[in-house]
Design a protein that fits this description.
The complex is a heterotrimer of chains A (180), B (497) and C (328).
Chain A (H helix, E strand, L loop, with lengths): L5 E5 L11 E4 H26 L3 E2 L2 E2 L3 H23 L7 E4 H24 L1 H15 L5 H22 L8 H5 L3
Helix pairs in contact in A: 1-2, 3-4, 4-5
Chain B lengths: L1 H13 L2 H19 L5 H8 L8 H26 L8 H12 L3 H34 L4 H18 L4 H16 L1 E3 L4 E3 L13 H19 L4 E4 L5 H10 L4 H16 L4 H15 L12 H16 L1 H7 L5 H12 L6 H6 L1 H30 L6 H20 L2 H19 L5 H24 L10 H14 L1 H13 L1
Antiparallel strand pairs in B: 1-2
Helix pairs in contact in B: 1-6, 1-17, 2-4, 2-17, 3-4, 3-9, 3-15, 4-5, 4-6, 4-15, 4-17, 5-6, 5-13, 6-10, 6-11, 6-13, 6-17, 7-8, 7-20, 7-21, 8-20, 9-18, 9-19, 11-12, 11-13, 12-13, 18-19
Chain C lengths: L3 H14 L11 E5 L6 H15 L7 E5 L6 H8 L7 E5 L2 H9 L9 E9 L2 E5 L7 H10 L4 E6 L4 H13 L3 E6 L2 H9 L5 E2 L3 H9 L3 E6 L34 E7 L5 H15 L2 H9 L3 E6 H22 L5
Parallel strand pairs in C: 1-2, 1-3, 6-7, 6-8
Antiparallel strand pairs in C: 3-10, 4-10, 4-11, 5-8, 5-9
Helix pairs in contact in C: 2-10, 4-11
The chains are: A mainly alpha (180), B mainly alpha (497), C alpha/beta (328).
């Protein structure tokens, strides 16, 4: 697009190509999701049945509503699964292509690891590692820039929450060293 | 005249340096959050909510609502300059806003968007100002059956009027209702669906779910797409502003119509999204030249922006008076209210005058200041998008984690947030709508409680839902909306004959 | 955001004034409220926050954290799962006895460290002013004949309000439809809106609507009248409310308001808080609050407190058992 007005351009070092092969089909993912949700609904039905699903003189018991809601949820999932099976058209749309999936994992895996690290080292140190690491590895941004950005951001968060607003966050050994 | 005095009182509450400073901070943060991809109104407010936990309620609500106005303004910037709607309700703004930017009229489009947002919220605030004194006594009419009828109306309108496949809407809503039921059941005092876990005892917090469903999942979705951005820079000069303002009166009918639609949909829980589309479509239909819409017509920016802001603002009224949030953001503000130690409801208007009227006055002031701020600083905020996404993404993740943790000081909530993040990602990709899920999470246990309280009160007699004009008409309307697709078909068939 | 200069000034002042302790908090202290926003516990926590900050009783800031989820069980479990953390104080009420019985929550107050009893809270029988029943007797007589039953509002299920309702039923033979709301504030609003005929709220929960003339105080569930004689409404003071026993309804119940630290804290930590709360009871804020909200100022610590807790626990247990609220 040759557009005279375009002035702001932010690049992307590794754009996902359009012709990457699919990791999963839309239809399969949908069916698996519905099946998992169905299992969840069955579990909830069982638990609420245990709690009590009768209609007492003073109205429904504690498990009554959740039981029927779970039943509706299960029914809707079943309907969705059957509909997908019966549907004739190929349903070959890609849910996610390989290169897309790689990028999603690049985001998701560090985020997932971030949680136990927070528990261990405290939120601020974990945040520093996440931001700096992500910028260097995924963003391919210069190391000093990344480290500086991560440090400034974590320090700013610490200043805002711990010092200015008294909102207490999980902290680890480093903060204890400074008496927090 | 009572309203006028109370409003003056509200302004007097605001006139301290501290609160004015908080307003500026809130607006700036809000615009920032609105411009960032993957953040926006509701989750932006949810993430910044912890900042206010230790403030007094008035300062807290002023700052938070300013974040909200800021986010609304910010959403328009990305829609127009980059064709990226920051939130669902700015989608309609891109229809004509982006073409205008392509034609080199970005400054005009932005001015139009900001000004019409300002007008939309102004109309809604005027409405709130004059309704607020009487809404408190009206709200006292609401007992358990009335509350249940309103919740029912909300749920039914989603199922009946939603455009998604019905079974997917149902899945989303039922899942939300189930998750909302986890924990202790207020009516019987029994635990349920906790499986003996003490973490699940307190239930799943709505805010944690929202941060996951919208914040984390949005980051994952954005990662998947290409991150390169191409956008138009815009510098707004006074000349352009005045030019747009001179043109505005010509479109008074569109502005008025959109404001009305917005207020209506905001007070009855329909939401800003529906309002912006409806505003746009009606403006197009009423226009003499409907074909010029979508090709960079300024009216196409006026209509959705006015409606979205009118609706977002007026949604605060039922939230304050009844504790029924009219929009996602209102639901988050409702969560805030509880943390600050306030109970929504009619007594709020009596016991916490300074809070209610401080908020209303801040809507006036916040919008004026916001308009000026955003008109003068657009280039700075637009350049935020120059920052590579690889730097923004982990920062957003961190902000989400802080937000999720701070709500209940629980590590478990960060895990829950991750779970909802994955859920939101998958659901969005397979076309299960998010709105019914969030709605059910907020209203689920309230709806159940009010139903069961009604049953205890009436000794199990269902006729209680038709026992007076108010509750009867709401219940009936709810059922009509639920079966609307069938009714519409039947009506069409009859007409054919 | 606090004014940094004021904070500095306060900090330096307290450095000069405060005696040195064997231990002092080094982090902001959390007052954990195991109840909803705006309820009696929340209000009391905010009063103590103000009293401590205004009188510079502690260097560290103090924050109120609401943990009212699962009818307050959230707050109790939060305390239980933070052993040794002396930066958390629970503001407890009869929930600590009742919840483990009714909902089988794995909690026992003996696992926490009792610091002090701060006050005893009263319960009052209220009805809506638009109803024609001006005395307890008229109200109860009407309730006996009413069809459909009168609705009684209250906070939570199988808790103090519910127990009181059951005992009113047992003593009089009248039957009520008990509506469990999420908070005392909601119960008050619903009474004003005439959706319930009566409730058994604490004085603080109905104070505003009583003052506005929207609800009527029938009697207080106590052995003697409340001591405060300043007029609250145009015609009545707390002292003018008759006891239920005077009115022929022999039910009495009072609820503790007490402070607990988590279990396993060091003696010097407990000592700091005992001293802190002792000072709180001497502040103008505390005295003012007691009178305004009609609480009975009682201060117990150490052995006296333990004895009180054991007796109170036994009493609550027997009430719950008799009401049939103990989960199998």
């Amino acid at each position: 697009m040759t557009d005279p007005g375009v002035e702001i351009v932010a690049g992307d070092p590794d754009e996902p190509p359009d012709d990457s092969p699919a990791v999963a089909q839309q239809r399969n993912v949908e069916m698996v999701t519905l099946a998992v949700t169905l299992a969840f609904a069955l579990l909830m039905m069982y638990d609420n049945w245990r709690t009590g699903i009768s209609w007492e003189p003073t109205g429904p018991a504690a498990g009554y509503f959740p039981f029927w809601v779970a039943l509706i949820l299960g029914g809707a999932c079943l309907f969705g699964i059957v509909k997908e099976i019966v549907k004739r058209d190929s349903g070959r749309d890609a849910f996610v292509t390989r290169s897309q999936f790689k990028r999603v994992l690049q985001m998701f895996v560090p985020t997932l690891l971030y949680v136990p690290v927070t528990q261990w080292l405290g939120l601020y140190v974990a945040s520093f590692i996440l931001i700096a690491g992500f910028m260097i590895v995924v963003g391919k941004i210069k190391a000093w820039k990344s480290l500086l950005t991560a440090f400034i951001f974590s320090a700013a968060m610490f200043g805002t929450f711990e010092i200015a607003f008294d909102v207490i966050m999980p902290k680890g050994p480093l903060e204890h060293l400074f008496g927090y | 005249m009572e309203a006028f005095h109370l409003l003056l009182y509200g302004f007097s509450v605001l006139m301290t340096w501290k609160i004015l400073a908080l307003m500026m901070v809130g607006l700036t943060l809000g615009i920032f959050v609105g411009v960032l991809p993957g953040l926006g109104g509701p989750n932006g407010v949810a993430i910044l909510l912890p900042l206010t936990f230790t403030m007094d309620p008035t300062s807290a609500i002023v700052m938070l609502s300013c974040i909200y106005w800021g986010a609304l303004f910010g959403g328009a910037i990305t829609s127009i300059l980059f064709n990226i709607p920051g939130e669902a309700w700015s989608v309609a703004t891109t229809f004509d806003g982006y073409p205008m930017a392509q034609q080199g009229r970005a400054a005009e489009a932005l001015t139009a968007a900001f000004t019409s947002s300002f007008i939309g919220s102004l109309v809604a605030v005027l409405l709130i100002t004059f309704l607020a004194p009487s809404i408190a006594s009206f709200a006292l009419k609401f007992g358990p059956p009335e509350f249940f009828a309103v919740y029912l109306l909300t749920f039914c309108s989603f199922v009946g009027l939603g455009r998604e496949e019905k079974h997917k809407t149902l899945i989303s809503m039922a899942l939300g209702l189930l998750v909302a039921g986890i924990g202790m059941d207020t009516v019987s005092g029994q635990l349920r669906m906790t499986f003996g876990s003490t973490e699940l005892l307190r239930g799943v917090n709505f805010l944690v779910a929202v941060i996951g469903l919208f914040g984390i999942s949005e980051i994952l979705l954005t990662m998947e797409e290409r991150l390169a951005l191409r956008g138009h820079a815009a510098k707004i000069s006074l000349r352009v502003v005045l030019k747009v303002w001179r043109e505005m009166p010509r479109y008074w009918a569109t502005l008025l119509r959109s404001s009305f639609i917005g207020c209506w949909l905001g007070i009855t829980p329909g939401g800003a999204i529906a309002a912006s589309f409806m505003g746009y479509n009606i403006a197009k239909r009423m226009s003499k030249d409907p074909d010029s819409f979508g090709k960079g017509r300024i009216e196409g920016v006026f209509a959705p922006e006015t409606a979205a802001h009118a609706s977002g603002t007026s949604a605060l009224l039922p939230m304050l008076a009844l504790g029924i949030p009219g929009s996602g953001t209102a639901a988050i503000l409702l969560g805030g209210l509880m943390v600050w130690g306030l109970n929504p409801g009619p007594l709020l208007f009596v016991e916490h005058k300074e809070f209610v009227w401080g908020l209303i006055a801040s809507m006036y002031l916040g919008n004026v200041v916001g308009l000026v701020l955003v008109l003068t600083t657009v280039p700075i905020f637009a350049s935020v998008l120059r920052v590579p996404f690889a730097a923004i993404a982990p920062m957003i993740v961190v902000s989400c984690a802080i937000g999720a943790f701070a709500i209940q000081n629980a590590m478990f909530d960060i895990w829950l947030m991750m779970l909802f993040g994955v859920l939101g990602y998958v659901f969005k990709k397979i076309g299960i709508p998010m709105a019914p899920l969030t709605l059910a999470l907020v209203l689920g246990s309230r709806a159940e409680d009010s139903f069961r309280l009604s049953m205890i009160g009436s000794a199990g007699d269902m006729r209680v839902f038709w026992s007076n004009g108010l509750v009867g008409s709401i219940t009936t309307l709810a059922l009509v909306l639920l079966f609307w697709p069938l009714i519409a078909r039947a009506l069409a068939a009859m007409r054919k004959r | 955001m606090r004014n940094p200069i004021a904070v500095l000034a306060a900090a330096s002042l307290s450095l000069l004034a405060a005696p040195s302790y064997a231990w002092e908090p080094t982090k902001p202290v959390e007052i954990v409220v195991a109840a909803g926003a705006g309820g009696a516990s929340d209000q009391m926590a905010r009063m103590m926050q103000a009293a401590i900050q205004k009188n510079n009783l502690m260097k560290q800031p103090i924050v109120v954290s609401l943990k009212g989820g699962a009818s307050g069980a959230e707050g109790l479990m939060y305390m239980k799962t933070s052993p040794g953390d002396a930066n958390k104080v629970l503001i407890a009420y009869s929930l600590i006895y009742m919840l483990p019985l009714s909902a089988k929550i794995p909690f026992n107050w003996r696992e926490l460290t009792p610091i002090s009893v701060m006050a005893l809270d009263e319960f009052v029988l209220w009805d809506n002013t638009t109803l024609p029943y001006k005395t307890t007797k008229e109200f109860i007589d009407a309730a006996k004949k009413a069809d459909p039953m009168f609705k009684m509002g209250g906070t939570g299920s199988k808790r103090e309000d519910h127990v009181l309702t059951v005992f009113i039923e047992k003593k009089t033979g009248a039957k009520f439809a008990y509506l469990p709301y999420k908070s005392g504030g909601e119960a008050a609003t619903q009474l004003v809106g005439n959706h319930t005929a009566s409730n058994v709220n604490n004085p603080s929960e109905n104070l505003e609507v009583w003052r506005a003339g929207q609800v009527r105080a029938l009697c207080v569930f106590s052995k003697e009248r409340m001591q405060y004689k300043t007029k609250v409404t145009e015609t009545m003071s707390w002292n003018d409310i008759p006891t239920c026993k005077e009115q022929g309804l022999d039910v009495s119940y009072q609820m503790l308001r007490a402070m607990f630290l988590p279990g396993g804290v060091k003696p010097e930590e407990a000592a700091f808080y005992t001293d802190l709360f002792k000072k709180v009871t001497q502040t103008a804020e505390y005295k003012d609050y007691m009178e305004k909200q009609a609480l009975k100022p009682v201060f117990l610590t150490g052995k006296d407190m333990l004895k009180f807790l054991e007796e109170d626990d036994a009493l609550n247990k027997s009430l719950m058992t008799e009401a049939g609220f103990v989960a199998q």
